[in-house]
């Protein structure tokens, strides 16, 4: 009796499954589509995330910085170094892929993506020397005229790869021993400078085929033993500004064949020094060119080795007056970027809580809102 009842239930279940399968088979297939992004605004954030916990699978997070809405993501491979093109229409990522994920045959490329759709549109093969470093702006830079793409190499010997963006081919590798980070000139497309360990700048000029015409070293402008500079620099045409570990501002002009400099000056008062205030983080400064304001991530009780400490305060510096004009709660910032033009916003990455803080920077710096839970181990932001 029990066997007959059990068999009956199995038959009923089978008939029900058959009926449901027939009904499901009649459903039309769902088309797969890709959502379209809104046109980029000056507040679109490109957050470079090396994802050090799974470094073979880095990310470039694309975020609407106005509405604080996640818009998309680009895979950046092993220690990928992203940058926008000079006309902001493309995104370039110098990266490494291994045939066995974390080992095996190494292939280095520059992946090319459309900045509107984020779709990959091409790639340029590199020699296997792309710098596998944390994300800094100077590891990959386009020339101001959009003709060249300069890529930092390291084996650890340093050199710079030159890509012709017209032909989409690597055309040269320029040895830059002891020098790091790429600072393109704004007035000369085929010219860049790089920071050297002896405190000088090496300026390289190339011809229309990407070959070196001049390679000249400047006078010493900082002392790496006494007060090294942070490698992140802010650009205003041919002028770059750096801040040092002890809070001095260094200004370099890179338009000529040999770089020149202005006299350094300090953002600290005597009282600030007594309290141990120092810059700290990765992308430690942001500059609003029109207003001449420099924003700096600062912490107190600084000491040797504290130069990566998240910000206790963000200082606003008037570049013309060479003095601090505001002090703002720091939001644990390790990276800063500010939009240019009117209605400027300052974006600060909170390295403790993995968040983006947004400040109204059009007048007095004031916190507007935050976006929590963004990224894993990012160190660099770029705006569209």
Name a few traits of the molecule:
mainly beta; globular; 5-stranded antiparallel β-sheet; 7-stranded antiparallel β-sheet; 29 strands; 2 helices; 384 residues
What does this protein look like?
This protein is mainly beta and 384 residues long. Helix content is 8%, strand content 46%. The chain contains 2 helices and 29 strands. The protein has helices at 2-25, 270-274, and strands at 44-49, 58-64, 69-84, 90-98, 106-114, 120-126, 140-142, 148-154, 158-164, 169-175, 179-184, 191-196, 201-206, 212-217, 234-236, 239-243, 248-253, 260-261, 265-266, 278-279, 285-288, 293-299, 313-318, 323-329, 333-338, 345-350, 355-360, 366-372, 378-383. Strands 6-5-4-3-2-1-29 form a 7-stranded antiparallel beta sheet, with no helix packed on it. Strands 15, 16, 17, 18 and 19 form a 5-stranded antiparallel beta sheet that branches. Strand 7 (140-142) and strand 8 form a beta hairpin. The chain is globular and about 75 Å long. The N and C termini lie far apart (76 Å).
Proportion in helices: under 10%
- Report Rg: 25 Å
Which secondary-structure class do the elements indicate? mainly beta
Overall residue-averaged pLDDT value? 94
Total strand count, please? Answer: 29
The tally of helices reads 2
Spatial order of the strands forming the largest sheet: 6-5-4-3-2-1-29
Taking the alpha carbons of the first and last residues, their distance comes to: 76 Å
Characterize the overall form: globular
Low-pLDDT residue spans: none
Main sheet, how many strands, which sense, barrel? 7 strands, antiparallel
Approximately how much beta-strand content do the residues carry? over 45%
């Amino acid at each position: 009796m029990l066997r007959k009842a059990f068999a009956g239930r199995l038959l009923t279940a089978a008939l029900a499954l058959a009926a449901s399968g027939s009904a499901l088979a009649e459903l039309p297939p769902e088309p797969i589509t890709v959502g379209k992004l809104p046109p980029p605004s000056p507040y679109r954030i490109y957050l470079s995330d090396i994802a050090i916990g799974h470094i073979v699978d880095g990310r470039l997070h694309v975020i609407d910085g106005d509405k604080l809405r996640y818009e998309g993501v680009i895979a950046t491979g092993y220690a990928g170094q992203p940058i926008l093109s000079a006309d902001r229409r493309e995104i370039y990522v110098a990266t490494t892929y291994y045939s066995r994920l974390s080992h095996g045959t190494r292939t280095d490329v520059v992946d090319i993506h459309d900045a509107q759709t984020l779709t990959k549109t091409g790639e340029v093969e590199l020699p296997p020397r792309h710098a596998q470093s944390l994300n800094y702006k100077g590891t990959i830079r386009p020339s101001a005229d959009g003709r060249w793409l300069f890529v930092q190499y390291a084996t650890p010997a340093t050199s710079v790869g030159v890509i012709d963006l017209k032909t989409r081919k690597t055309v040269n590798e320029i040895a830059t021993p002891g020098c790091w980070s790429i600072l393109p000139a704004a007035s000369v497309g085929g010219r860049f400078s790089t920071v050297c360990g002896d405190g000088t700048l090496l300026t390289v000029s190339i011809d229309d085929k990407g070959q070196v015409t001049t390679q000249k070293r400047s006078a010493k402008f900082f002392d790496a033993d006494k007060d090294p500079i942070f490698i992140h620099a802010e650009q205003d045409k041919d002028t770059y500004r750096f801040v040092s570990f002890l809070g001095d501002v260094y200004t370099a002009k890179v338009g000529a064949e040999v770089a020149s400099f202005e006299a350094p000056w300090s953002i600290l008062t005597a009282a600030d020094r007594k309290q141990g205030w120092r810059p700290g983080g990765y992308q430690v400064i942001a500059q609003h060119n029109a207003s001449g304001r420099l924003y700096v991530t600062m912490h107190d009780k600084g000491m040797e080795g504290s130069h990566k400490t998240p910000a206790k305060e963000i200082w606003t510096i008037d570049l013309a007056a060479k003095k601090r004009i505001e002090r703002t709660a720091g939001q644990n910032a390790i990276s800063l970027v500010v939009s240019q033009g009117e209605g400027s916003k300052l974006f600060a990455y909170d390295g403790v809580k993995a968040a983006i803080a947004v400040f109204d920077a059009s007048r007095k710096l004031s916190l507007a809102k935050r976006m929590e839970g963004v990224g894993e181990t990012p160190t660099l932001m770029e705006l569209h």
